[in-house]
């Protein structure tokens, strides 16, 4: 059993200049079998177990490629790609096409031929990219960026076509995860939420998942059980059951007065004057989307099928209508006890690896909850 890491210096956000390969010894402990120094701080990496090809993104914009030996005790340099003008933020190696996809702080998406090392093409994103996924069947690439936008491109051998862009987060996109079977894209954000985008359904369906108290840092998906794993800066590991019929959250309605009791809101001067009443603050029911006052929305409830695992504001009539069955949780919550910055899920073993800003790597047996 092996794992590969590049250490972070925590608070400064800068990476170290070493790559380590960890092997499980007979004692049951993990020890580094390789300690390799890099010419520039490491920023991201991608590993393909089938070919044992390791691609490492560096702060200077270079992608360095290595092949690991069968016993994982040696890494041999293969080639370098001069991919970006500044720090590489994401890397994906696509074995089926022999492509290396990458994004950088220079706001460029690029793809290279891994056989020749030649740059095949590029695309300038609206902001620095922080999420990257690829669908081999359709050759669509999904790019999430710090502005909160997700861009879909159609890649050809030497050119690309913009398919569409969309946004649903109020913060930047921090992670993407693609399910090629159900054809849905998951995006995590600094706004603490996860959104499931039904790409294959072509109906524009977007399902919100609210289960973190800090930004979502990483996403993984267990296709065989249809469970999403999200990890956040709050140390939370949330396992979402996506094999249930979820509901879209309603659009918030606009109104100058409470849509339950007709009391004016504080900007509705005419109605305040006519009725001789003090204007009230506007709120919204998370279940029906109506604009309501505080008195008409004094209750709180979880609505798991709408993605609200925590209690949220609902109007009094919706609170009465929500059944105990509808309040049944669709996610389980676990505390990793560190600020997670990266995860890797091994579906065959049911193991989850997390690494944090505390420079600690933790290995979790997820079989009791991902099954």
Automatic annotation (TrEMBL):
Cellular location of this protein?
Early endosome
InterPro entries documented for this protein: WD40/YVTN_repeat-like_dom_sf, WD40_PAC1, WD40_repeat_CS, WD40_repeat_dom_sf, WD40_rpt, WDFY1/WDFY2, Znf_FYVE, Znf_FYVE-rel
What are the alphabetically sorted keywords of the record? Endosome, Metal-binding, Repeat, WD repeat, Zinc, Zinc-finger
Task: Tell me a Gene Ontology molecular-function term this record carries.
Answer: zinc ion binding
Gene3D superfamilies listed in its UniProt record: YVTN repeat-like/Quinoprotein amine dehydrogenase, Zinc/RING finger domain, C3HC4 (zinc finger)
**Domain FYVE-type residues, every copy:** 252-323
- Please report the residue spans annotated as repeat (WD): 166-199, 209-250, 333-366
Q: Which GO terms describe its cellular component?
A: early endosome
Tell me what this protein is called.
WD repeat and FYVE domain containing 2
Write down the superkingdom of origin. Answer: Eukaryota
């Amino acid at each position: 059993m092996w794992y590969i890491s590049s250490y972070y210096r925590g608070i400064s956000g800068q990476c170290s200049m070493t790559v380590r390969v960890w092997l499980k010894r007979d004692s049951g402990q993990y020890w580094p079998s390789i300690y390799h120094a890099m010419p520039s701080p490491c920023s991201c990496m991608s590993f393909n177990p089938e070919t044992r090809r390791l691609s490492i993104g560096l702060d200077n914009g270079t992608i360095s490629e290595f092949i690991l030996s069968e016993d994982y005790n040696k890494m041999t340099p293969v080639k370098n790609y001069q991919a970006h003008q500044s720090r590489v933020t994401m890397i994906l190696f696509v074995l089926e096409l022999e492509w290396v996809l990458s994004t950088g702080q220079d706001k460029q998406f690029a793809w290279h031929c891994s056989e020749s090392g030649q740059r095949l093409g590029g695309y300038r994103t609206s902001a620095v990219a922080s999420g990257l996924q690829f669908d081999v069947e359709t050759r669509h690439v999904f790019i999430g960026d710090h502005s909160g936008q997700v861009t879909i491109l159609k890649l050809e051998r030497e050119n690309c076509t913009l398919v569409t862009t969309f946004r649903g987060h109020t913060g930047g996109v921090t992670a993407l995860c693609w399910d090629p079977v159900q054809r849905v894209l998951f995006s995590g954000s600094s706004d603490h939420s996860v959104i499931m985008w039904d790409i294959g359904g072509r109906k524009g369906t977007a399902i919100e998942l609210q289960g973190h108290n800090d930004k979502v840092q990483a996403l993984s998906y267990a296709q065989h059980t249809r469970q999403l794993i999200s990890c956040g800066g709050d140390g939370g590991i949330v396992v979402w059951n996506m094999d249930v019929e979820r509901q879209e959250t309603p659009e918030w309605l606009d109104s100058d007065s409470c849509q339950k009791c007709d009391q004016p809101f504080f900007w509705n001067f005419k109605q305040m004057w006519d009725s001789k009443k003090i204007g009230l603050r506007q709120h919204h029911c998370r279940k029906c989307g109506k604009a309501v006052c505080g008195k008409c929305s004094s209750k709180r409830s979880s609505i798991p099928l709408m993605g609200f695992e925590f209690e949220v504001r609902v109007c009094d009539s919706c609170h009465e209508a929500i059944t105990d069955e509808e309040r049944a949780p669709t996610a389980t919550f676990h505390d990793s006890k560190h600020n997670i910055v990266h995860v890797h899920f091994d579906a065959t073993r049911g193991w989850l690896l997390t690494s944090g800003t505390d420079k600690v790597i933790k290995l979790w047996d997820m079989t009791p909850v991902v099954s």
